[in-house]
């Protein structure tokens, strides 16, 4: 199991959903006859299905992940948000007590479930259409499946396999200095903002005391 | 196994090393009695040891990952670089043939190996010192272990466990539109640059034809 001290658990389902939507490229982890595997697959969280929803996506038919696996072990999909190294220098507490060590902050979502396979072209067409709509939402003129010739689309749909993971466990770990006093959180947030790259600024927003 | 078409394989060990150094927070994947687990651990690639080097890091002693595992299955550590959704709209080929579908680009490194455990304080002190030196390198006044009181440091060192993974397989997958013609690569790179966030710009640099 993921090591998850209670103060790092993200119990707000909205925050978990937002991370998957913002960083949809999941790391799909499976156990096969040759050991552990990871494949990187964009997923959509479909909440209309099951108590905790399901993840849907697709992989290349040539990717062994859909047939080469131990079905008795649930698969794990990891979604990763911003991360940042946290220096002890950034904590005012350090100046007083020096009782501080370096750490790393990050936010992640872990989803477990059985993996179902779909080879039916109608199912695949529906899933690819939904994924496309979400992914193209920010385009000025969103690409649509109908933009591609029918014969080409048919060929592409037969070269992929659908993956559906009904979620049995959905875990959010937000390691964002919640175990520090407000002054330390403010110090780390300010230091990350000063670094200024997107990841650091995103982590600063997560750390800043409310 | 990771699905890895030959044109996406990163065969330059320098590029693989650079990704681990730039994004040291690895996803440590293990198989335990309760199934698959992932934990997020900053690693250092130590190339002075073994043919492919070793990963070294540490976890909280309270993290079950170091004792609760199936030693017959090699662990897998995934390091993830920039990723970006790639719209068919960005490929000039689309205007001509419309034979293009959406995809996702990403770069990742997968490292396999057995997991060794270290509880010796001298070993831990050495590893923490090396990690600190690397992580603090960009600080104006790098924090050093000696900055912390000896009793506190001793307590901290007894609350962690060292992880060493002698690498048996090191795989780089750079999915960065290498299968597209130069005009398409240039189009996607320009579109990502226009989006302008750090991830998109980093992916644009990876895609742009040489």
What does this protein look like?
The structure is a homodimer of 210-residue chains. Chain A is of the alpha+beta class and 210 residues long. Chain A has a single domain (6-205), classed as Electron Transport, Fmn-binding Protein, Chain A (Pnp Oxidase, Chain A), CATH 2.30.110.10. The first copy, chain A, is built from six helices and nine strands. Chain A has helices spanning 13-22, 92-97, 121-135, 150-158, 182-195, 198-207, and strands at residues 25-32, 35-42, 44-46, 54-60, 75-86, 103-113, 116-118, 160-166, 169-175. The first copy, chain A, has a five-stranded antiparallel β-sheet. In chain A, strands 3-4-8-7 form a four-stranded antiparallel β-sheet. In chain A, a hairpin with a 7-residue loop joins strand 3 and strand 4 (54-60). Chains A and B meet through strand 1, strand 2, strand 5, strand 6 and helix 3 of A and strand 1, strand 2, strand 5, strand 6 and helix 3 of B.
């Amino acid at each position: 199991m993921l090591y998850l001290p209670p103060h790092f658990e993200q119990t707000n389902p909205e925050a978990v959903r937002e991370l998957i939507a913002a960083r949809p490229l999941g790391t799909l982890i499976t156990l096969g006859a040759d050991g552990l595997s990871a494949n990187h697959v964009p997923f959509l969280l479909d909440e209309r299905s099951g108590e905790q929803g399901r993840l849907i996506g697709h992989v290349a038919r040539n990717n062994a992940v859909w047939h080469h696996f131990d079905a008795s072990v649930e698969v794990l999909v990891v979604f990763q948000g911003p991360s940042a190294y946290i220096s002890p220098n950034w904590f005012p507490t350090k100046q007083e007590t020096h009782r501080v060590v370096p750490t790393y902050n990050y936010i992640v979502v872990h989803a477990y479930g059985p993996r179902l396979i779909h080879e039916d072209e109608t199912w695949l067409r529906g899933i690819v259409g939904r994924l496309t709509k979400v992914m193209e939402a920010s385009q000025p003129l969103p690409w649509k499946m109908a933009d591609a010739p029918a014969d080409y689309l048919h060929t592409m749909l037969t070269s992929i396999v659908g993956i559906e993971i009904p979620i049995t466990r959905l875990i959010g770990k937000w390691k964002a200095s919640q175990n520090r006093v407000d002054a330390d959180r403010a110090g780390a947030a300010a230091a990350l903002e000063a670094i200024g790259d997107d990841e650091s600024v995103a982590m600063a927003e997560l750390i800043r005391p409310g």
